[in-house]
Amino acid sequence: MACTNCSTGSKDGTPRGCKNNGTCGTDSCNKLTVFDWLSNMSLPGGQAPFDCVEVRFKNGRKEFYRNTENISLSIGDIVATEAAPGHDIGIISLTGELVKVQMKKKGVNPDGEVPKIYRKASQKDIDVWREAREREEPMKVIARELAIRLNLEMKISDIEFQGDGSKATFYYTANDRVDFRQLIKDYAREFSIRIEMKQVGFRQEAARLGGIGSCGRELCCSTWLTDFRSVNTSAARYQQLSLNPQKLAGQCGKLKCCLNYELDTYLDALKGLPDIDTKIYTEKGDAVCQKVDIFKGLMWFSYTDNVAHWHMIEAAQVKEIVSLNKQKKRIASLEEYVLEVVSETEEKQYHNTVGQDSLTRFDKPKKKKRSNNNNKKRKPSNEKNAKK
Questions:
Q1: Pairing mode of beta strands 62-66, 306-314
Q2: In the chain, at which residue ranges do the beta strands (DSSP E only) sit?
Q3: Given phi > 0 = left and psi -120 to 50 = alpha, else beta, which region is 290?
Q4: CA angle, residues 115, 120, 125, in degrees to nearest 5
Q5: Predicted pLDDT at 24
Q6: Parallel, antiparallel or unpaired: strands 167-173 and 194-199
Q7: Which of 89, 96, 80, 78 shows the shortest CA–CA distance to 36?
Q8: Residues 6 or more apart whose Cβ sits within 8 Å of residue 47
């Protein structure tokens, strides 16, 4: 997660969670980072290095800037960048030829107009930047109270200050169009700063704030996922998942992005299987499909007059039956094609081929040893008899 959530030291304030000692820029540790696999490779002779760099801001927001002054920059440097108005403070997250690949991926023209980098940030710039960042959380509480007071159906999810402290961007989410003209006036009067409102989607909000998913790991959208593809309930139907909104919804309240990860595999496997709406006509009665095991190629059918009793048939045999039905031929019954199932007790037969000891050998109760106290007591009497 972010350094703001990490446990910090009591004296110097350096984060103890990520062990970066503050070099990660107070938040967004390893968030949407890109591994520069070209860093150890030298450029061909006579070729100048690419003059654009990638700069990271709060919550993983990244922008591209051109190094017009030929400043020696490396990953982790804090720089002052061009902004409107004033300047912004960010951290270099990527340099070199790989930036050109990232720009093409984001749809930015490497030869077009790109904002420029002014300089490396001085200590004064960093102090102003930190003071502005410390104002964000108290402002967020007041901003939400003002929005509730005006009965606006919107949620202020985050506030981001510009590096020089001259402007604050309020990120909000809303289902419908919101008239926040009066809200901006209240914000300007309350905070005495230039205000910019920016609406983000619910998925983008989750990506900015981060969190832990139901899988126990950090959200994909806040760590590596950059493109948000549309997710439909049909993806859950193809994968035979229960349409339970509480299980299918993520932290953003929308369908989980991971529903699309294995969808192509399921679609390829379904191409060779009959449809789940397939009906089989037999002399004993009509049968409908109840369940499909996609990867094992098995289908379960039941008669319409006895839905509780299912018969497991291979998908290849189902195709043969369907082809016979198309020729207006009926099979005798489903029982002729039922696949024999080996019981679990027959399948799981473990043999001790290595000669190892039983795992339950310590569970056996130990036999109690007979005490020799009685024998010891009898010895003196025997000795007396021998003396007599």
A1: unpaired
A2: 52-56, 62-66, 78-82, 87-94, 117-120, 155-161, 167-173, 194-199, 279-281, 286-293, 298-303, 306-314
A3: alpha
A4: 100
A5: 46
A6: parallel
A7: 96
A8: none
Contacts of 101 (CB under 8 A, 6+ apart): none
Q: Strand 87-94 vs strand 62-66: parallel, antiparallel, or unpaired?
A: unpaired
CA 60 from centre of chain: 15
Rg value, the chain, Cα:
35
Enter the tokens of residue 257: 């992005």
- Taking the C-alpha atoms of residue 8 and residue 15, their distance in angstroms, rounded to an integer, is 4
Pair of tokens at residue 86:
């004033």
The pLDDT, as a whole number, for residue 288 is 92
CA–CA dist 236, 227 (Å, integer): 20
54 touches 99 (CB < 8 A) = yes
Q: Which two tokens stand for residue 73?
A: 């920059």
What is the per-residue DSSP string for 172-198? EE-SS----HHHHHHHHHHH-SEEEEE
Task: Calculate the dihedral angle through the C-alpha atoms of 71, 73, 78, 80, rounding to the nearest 10 degrees.
Answer: 30
What is the Cα–Cα distance from 196 to 170, expressed in whole angstroms? 6
Rounded to an integer, what distance in angstroms lies between the CA atom of residue 261 and that of residue 256?
10
User: Which pTM does this prediction carry?
Assistant: 0.68
**pLDDT tens readout for residues 192-212:** 999 999 999 999 899 888 889
Question: CA of 319: how far to CAs of 16, 187, 204, in Å?
Answer: 62, 68, 46
